[in-house]
């Protein structure tokens, strides 16, 4: 378990320890009820270039897939640890992520004591979505945990894996976050803002240790583990997914291409390749591909449990 | 004006041309009324590392300073072009940037036809702030324009400068955006996602041309121009601010240190250094340093106009 505690990364801050305890309690409580628990990771990681950070490397990810998946996992009966990038999309509120709420609120008549109301013509479906959000909160089956930097993420992933390990095969990992492959070790990072007057910037970034390896081997060896493979070049997609399965020995890779990721994915296992897609007609009706992905995975998880 | 149109950057997309026309009309209309017009830039720029972008370099900036400043400039009688990073903080709604609106909304009684209301205990001051937001919108004195990448930003800055140039000294530039100093030229950028299996990442980034130079010399030579200097090392702050004034020959540098930027800045001109700060007592009362900065700058702008 030395991978993350290496001196290359900042030591875990106190709030990580607190989050670790919350995740342990959450897993224990839901595990005791026989509920399956999934860890969803969502959003991109921030990789600082300076220790007092002005500049950082980031990965393209709005957190749309992870936050949508959280909704469908809760609906499918899972308890969800939602490990997400600070300010990335969040279950249910993601549906209004382009809305400026200042535009959507109106002042009611004075007689009502100046109620502030939502203009429902500007916020379609708000009543139903608010009810679903409330139901999710009241069920107690969503535990949100935030990260910002790559270092936060790595510490929290390890803590989450340790929290879920006692659940054995009832635990699922759904690793949808866009985690940086590269970083600058703490020991090689300049303290202060890099001065532009020093000329062109030369950066040498080390490769981030692949956490999937200790996760599958040591941290939660009985769990059902899904990773994601996002490429921009469709021609190398399936080959890269197969290579990841061979290397890490986990159960499923969801393979997708940047441009079509909202309408088409391939669910790759050691022996199968299943294509899932959302047609234009379904898209118009509001069907999301995450609904199909989660249905597929929940069923595979059931088979996985039966084979243990 | 060749700086931005160089082949190092993507050519301006169609929406930039549209934004340019909106800015021209806005400047012309307000200029005709004798209103001073300020261009505020706000938020960080995204610098893609791949042309189908998965990874990018970013600058730390929530857009808090720019969005707060926009409010105080409107209050001071200015018309404001608010050139800001997509999803960065926005005037007024910034005050609720940590709020999940799903938590703040409640369903009213069935008899009222299921009104959705704001729980005002969770959203302090909402009535007053909503009124100020409405007043700002109705005044027509805020034109929001969005950017995402460094390339968007550079094209839009040039377009804004050309739009404001006819206003002469009535135009102000308040350049609070955290603009990257480095980029990878379009011609040297890989098309596809950089493969982590290729080993450690070596990046060589060119220096971004300093737009302040053509802005002051050619694009809007009569305008009142304010740039920002953010450092993490206080010992080099004033020297760096003075150097910028000497190099670009503009009017004001607002110098600030990362850790204390919300409570302390130095307004540096060729001949003066004025310290502005917010005391702990003022902070408790909700006083923001941007209110003091804008009051100071509006008065300097008046003097500047009288000296022309």
From TrEMBL, chains A, B:
Matching SUPFAM superfamilies: CoaB-like (SSF102645)
Name under which the protein is recorded: Phosphopantothenate--cysteine ligase
Domain DNA/pantothenate metabolism flavoprotein C-terminal: 36-84, 165-263
Gene Ontology molecular function, alphabetical: phosphopantothenate--cysteine ligase activity
Reaction catalysed by this enzyme: (R)-4'-phosphopantothenate + L-cysteine + ATP = N-[(R)-4-phosphopantothenoyl]-L-cysteine + AMP + diphosphate + H(+); (R)-4'-phosphopantothenate + L-cysteine + CTP = N-[(R)-4-phosphopantothenoyl]-L-cysteine + CMP + diphosphate + H(+)
InterPro entries (UniProt xref): CoaB-like_sf, DNA/pantothenate-metab_flavo_C
Top EC class for this record: ligase
BP terms from Gene Ontology: coenzyme A biosynthetic process
Domain of life the protein comes from: Eukaryota
EC annotation from Swiss-Prot or TrEMBL: 6.3.2.51
Family: Belongs to the PPC synthetase family.
Any Pfam family matching the protein: DFP
Function: Catalyzes the second step in the biosynthesis of coenzyme A from vitamin B5, where cysteine is conjugated to 4'-phosphopantothenate to form 4-phosphopantothenoylcysteine. Has a preference for ATP over CTP as a cosubstrate.
């Amino acid at each position: 378990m030395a991978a993350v505690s290496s001196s290359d990364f900042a030591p875990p801050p106190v709030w990580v320890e607190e989050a670790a305890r919350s995740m342990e309690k959450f897993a224990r409580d839901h595990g005791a009820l026989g509920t399956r628990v999934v860890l969803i990771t969502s959003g991109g990681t921030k990789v600082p270039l300076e220790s007092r950070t002005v500049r950082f490397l980031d990965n393209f990810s709005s957190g749309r897939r992870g936050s949508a998946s959280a909704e469908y996992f809760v609906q499918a009966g899972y308890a969800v640890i939602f490990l997400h990038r600070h300010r990335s999309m969040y279950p249910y509120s993601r549906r209004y992520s382009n809305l400026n709420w200042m535009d959507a609120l109106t002042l009611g008549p004075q007689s009502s004591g100046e109620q502030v109301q939502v203009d429902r013509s500007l916020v379609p479906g708000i009543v139903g979505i608010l009810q679903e959000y409330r139901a999710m909160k009241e069920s107690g089956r969503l535990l949100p945990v935030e990260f910002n930097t790559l270092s936060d993420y790595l510490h929290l992933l390890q803590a989450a894996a340790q929290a879920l390990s006692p659940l054995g095969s009832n635990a699922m990992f759904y690793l949808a976050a866009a985690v940086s492959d590269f970083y600058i070790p703490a020991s090689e990072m300049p303290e202060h803002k890099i001065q532009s007057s020093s000329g062109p910037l030369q950066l040498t970034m080390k490769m981030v240790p692949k956490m999937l390896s200790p996760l599958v081997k040591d941290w939660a060896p009985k769990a059902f583990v899904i990773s994601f493979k996002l490429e921009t070049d469709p021609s190398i997609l399936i080959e890269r997914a197969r290579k990841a399965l061979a290397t890490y020995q986990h159960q499923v890779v969801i393979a997708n291409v940047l441009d079509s990721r909202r309408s088409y994915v391939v669910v790759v296992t050691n022996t199968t390749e299943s294509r899932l897609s959302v047609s234009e007609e379904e898209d118009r009706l509001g069907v999301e591909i995450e609904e199909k992905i989660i249905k597929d995975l929940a069923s595979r998880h059931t088979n996985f449990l039966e084979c243990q």
